[in-house]
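Researcher: Let's run the pair from yesterday's discussion. Sequence first, then C-alpha cells, for each.
Model: Starting with the first of the pair.
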Amino acid sequence: MCDDIHHNAMSVKQLNYPRKVVLGDITVRDGFQHEEKFIPTKAKLWVLEELVLAGFKHLEVTNFGNPRGMPQFADADELFKLLYASKRVGGLLREVVLTAITIRETAVDRAVRARREGYGPDRVLMMVSTSASHMVRNSGLGHKEYWAEVARCIGKCHDAGIKVNGCVSTIWGCPIEGPTDMRLAVDATRRFLELGADDIEHADHDGSAPPDKVYEYFSMIMDAVPDPMKHVAHFHVTRGWGLANVLAALQAGVVRFEGTMGGIGGQPANFVDGVPVTGTGDYYYRDPDNVGLVSTEDMVVMMDEMGIDTGVDVDRVLGVGAVVEKIVGRRLRSECVRGGRIKRVVQRGSGRPGGGHDISLCSLI
C-alpha cells in the first residue's frame, strides 16, 4: 500500500505556470483613491520610495485628472517632483516605469507638459469599458468619441516619449449593466494595440470575475495576442476570489500582475476630509468598505512559496504593508502582514520544542 501511495504521489501532475513574473504596485494611486481622507503627500512619497527599494519596477504614482472631483490627487505635480528629487531613490528611477492615470485628453495634455518640464510620467493609462453605461460614467464619452480621443492621445504621448497603457474594463461584468461579453474585451484589446498602445491592462474593476472565466478569458487573449509582456492582470476583490484569479491567470500564461498594499482601493472616493466631492458618482458597491484589489503582500508571499521569482524583497514588502495600515489608520486586508511568511527551513530532529519531526507518509496511514 505504501508503494502505491508513493507511486501516485510521483505521478501527480504539476501546475503549469510561469517561473518568473513582473509585479506592479498601484497603492498610491488606485489604493489611496478610495480613501475618504487625504493621504499626506510625504506619506505617499515614503510608500513609493519603499516600493522602489523593495524592487518594484512598475508603480502608479497619481491621477492627472481634475482634482476638483478627486482631491486625493491635488498633489499630483508635487508628488512627481518630490519623487524625482528623492535622495533615497532618485538614482534608481531610470529602472522603474512610473505611471499616471489620464482617462481624458486634458489629463494626457497635463502629463505631456509635465514630461517636457522634466518630471512627468513614463507611462499613462487610458481606459475603455466594454459596457456602454460604465464607459459614459467613467469618461463622460461614448465609445466612438472615446476611441477617437485615444488615437489622438497615443500620438501625443509617443511624440513626448511617454508609453500608453490601454486599460480594458468590465470584462467579466459591469456594476451598472450586469453580465458582459468577454469577446468585446478581446476586440478592445486588439483595437488599443492597433492604435499604438504599448501594453494592455485587463481589469476586473468590481470583483465579478470567477476563476474559471479568468482562465477562459486570458486563454483567449493569449491566443489573440501571444506576447505575455503585453498583458497586465488587474483584479479587484469583493467576494474573496482575488488570489484564485491570480492563479487562474498564471495558468493561462500571464506574467504581469498588479496589486495594492493591504488590498485597498476601488472607485474614487466621493467624500474626502469631511467634504462631499463628485468622484465618479455614487459608489457601485453594496458595501463601499468591503472593496479593494488583490493584496500585494499576499500575492508576493503566495508566488514566493510557489517558487515564482517576483523580483522583490518579500520581507520589505511585508514591512511596507504594516506601515500602510498606520498611514490609513486601520487594519487592512493582507493576511500575510498579520500572519507572516511560512518558515522556509524544515528542521529534522528529535521532536523536542524548537525541532522538527521527520515523519514519513506511510507512518500516517
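Model: Moving on to the second of the pair.
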Amino acid sequence: MIKLIKRRYIAFRIKPHIKISKREIYNVLIKEILTSTNVKTGNGFYIWVVKFDVETGLGIIRCGHNSLNQILQSIQEPERMLKELKFKTLGTSGSIKTLKRKFLSKEFK
C-alpha cells in the first residue's frame, strides 16, 4: 500500500528588493531546517520554493503534510540568514489558490 503525501503550501515574506533567487532561498531554508533540533528527515519530508517575487518579497513554499509542523517550528525560530532576510510566514493552506486568496496580495500572481 502506498501512502500519499498531501501537499501543503506556506506563504512567506522577506525584505523586498533583495537580490536573491529561489534556489538561494531553498538552500537557506534547508540549512535552517536541518540545523534545527526538532526536525526528523525521512519519508515524506520535502520542501520546495514554488514561487518568489523579488519586487514584493512574497513567496510560496510547498512541503508535505507530515513535515509541515516541524518546518514551521524551525522557520519561526530563525537563526543567522533568515533573521537577516526578515523571513516571516504569513499562513498555510492545502492549495495555492486558497493561499493566494487569504494571505497574499492581489499583485502576487
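Researcher: Give me one sentence on the second I can quote.
Model: Helices lie at 22-35, 68-76, 80-85, 96-103.
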